[in-house]
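Why run this: before we spend reagent on co-expression, it is cheaper to look at a predicted model of the complex and decide which construct boundaries make sense. The entries below are exactly what would go into the expression plan.
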Amino acid sequence: MSKGTLFDKVWDAHTVSTLPSGQTQLFIGLHLIHEVTSPQAFAMLRERGLKVSFSERTIATVDHIVPTEDQSRPYADSLAEEMMQALEKNCQENDITFYNVGSGSQGIVHVIAPEQGFTQPGMTIACGDSHTSTHGAFGAIAFGIGTSQVRDVLASQTLSLSKLKVRKIEVNGALKPGVYAKDVILHIIRKLGVKGGVGYAYEFAGTTFQQMNMEERMTVCNMAIEGGARCGYVNPDRVTYDYLQGRDFAPKGDDWDKAIAWWNNIRSDVDAVYDDAIVFDAADIAPTITWGITPGQGIAVDEFVPMQDGIADDERAIAEEAYLYMDLAPGQPIRGTKVDVCFVGSCTNGRISDLREAAKFAKGRHVANGVKAFIVPGSERVKKQAEAEGLHEVFLTAGFEWREAGCSMCLAMNPDKLQGRQLSASSSNRNFKGRQGSSSGRTLLMSPAMVVAAAVTGQVTDVRELI
Amino acid sequence: MVSEVKTVSGRGIPLVGNDIDTDRIIPARFLRCVTFDGLGADVFADDRAQAKGQHPFDQSQYQGAKVLVVNDNFGCGSSREHAPQAIAKWGIGAIVGESFAEIFFGNCVVMGIPCVAADSTTTKQLQEMVTADPHAEITVDLEAMQVKCDNFSAPISMGEGSRMMLMAGTWDACGQLVAQSDRTRATAATLPYLSWSKLAS
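The model came back. Tokens follow.
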């Protein structure tokens, strides 16, 4: 059993009681809500005559359904409009701060909470969205929950949970040129599998993560859930504090000093005990790309689609399904695969540093004929910052579309969708069948730089060739 | 409203495959809703359309089934409770599988639906038995921690906390959690960040 890790310390500090079932009642320090998984929770509260208990600990935004082109109301999609109105009404009736479209602070929930300084070390954070693990980048214990649990947090600011085990994932060394945080997490999931993390919190440790900026750490923690781990985290350090200082909701004055002391104290002890540990070498990580229908079906961009005999017995069936669905043959190089749609954005890779990196590769080049390529900033603030830096001009000149903030084609609950069998190069987090809005659409996950490389060449390209 | 879940019995339905994700269970376009009503009709919508009537959830012999038998890492991906809600509204009351994704499992517990784990030999055997005889009844017994089908029986496992909640009828923990409001406030008072990070502007 783990001892002395950040996970243990934060868990203990937030334990309210042990329930008769033996599960822990855990206090939730920050609750994030959005339009998709909250309306039924508010309805359940109303049915039971319950009120929101700590309305000041919940913040709301709208992201999944938001159109990234025409945002005029009412939305063309009447179902989306109904969801939007439900969220507006629920927030107003329950005194919950809502960052609506046009507020200047709307965006993907996992982008806006960190950028405004809501997300802080040592917190417990819950949201009805599996990518809540993102916030672990700050040394918070952050995890996705279902709608009934959203109800529980609204009603009590607590959850009934069983404690997770803790696995330390150490990666050491400098990343090679053209290799990004996205490649690191795709590599880890490839090695540990999509269910390797079930029952675990992942602690990302080692010099590679220490050298990453906060947005890179968010990319890594974001996809912990794709490896089966409900939450992942990085111990807070100077990089974390420098990011937070001065943000709207970060502590100020005397509180800042107190905060630093508390944050330093919740870091994993040097002699902390872990349930499991594994070490990777950053030098072994190449630009990585998925070829199949789970985020674990990844290969280096210069590798070949795996042959059947190289696949473990229990993964063979899903590999067969993937060859068929993706229309990729075993042994075929992934490089050179023609792409139809290129998407940069999402809670994984829709932050300003992602757009800067994408712009670097778009500059002086042009989207290939027949390819649709678009850039979706993760928030209104990211969009504003990118425009202040002239990144939108770079993208527009290069033939990319420049959109409004939202989840967009990561999950296609809005007008951004693949059509038919289209193949997408995507900076998002899931390559599941049908994920991007067409029941036969295909997705290759990769870093934003690799997406741009694919866009300008019309095919899967090793971004290192464009450096 | 809350009731004890000690055993679930009913006809079985096999769904073969590892890593069946929640996007497949309920594609995102069906999440454009403000209630869970009606999701049962759309469960596995795209898989069913592609199987052209040959998907277990469409096959006549499995209509009315109550116990779903799956393989490994069922319910991975998104946290959408719409997925277990759609499965439950179709008629499923318990799921037997090799393993389950964490959030999906938790969502099922709070809905009073046990997801029990069995080894791969057991899940495969149950799938074969149900395929051979769709009228065979499967019993998931949380007291004995056994799954039974005709003369076959095998051990199952489940986290003890979740098992206790189902057996005691406290799987909907909302009432218990709300009842602890004094202790919740006391815990909150010990957390330094609640005073320095005011969320509401």
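The two ends of chain B are 39 Å apart (CA to CA). The mean pLDDT of chain B is 96. Bring this page to Monday's planning discussion.
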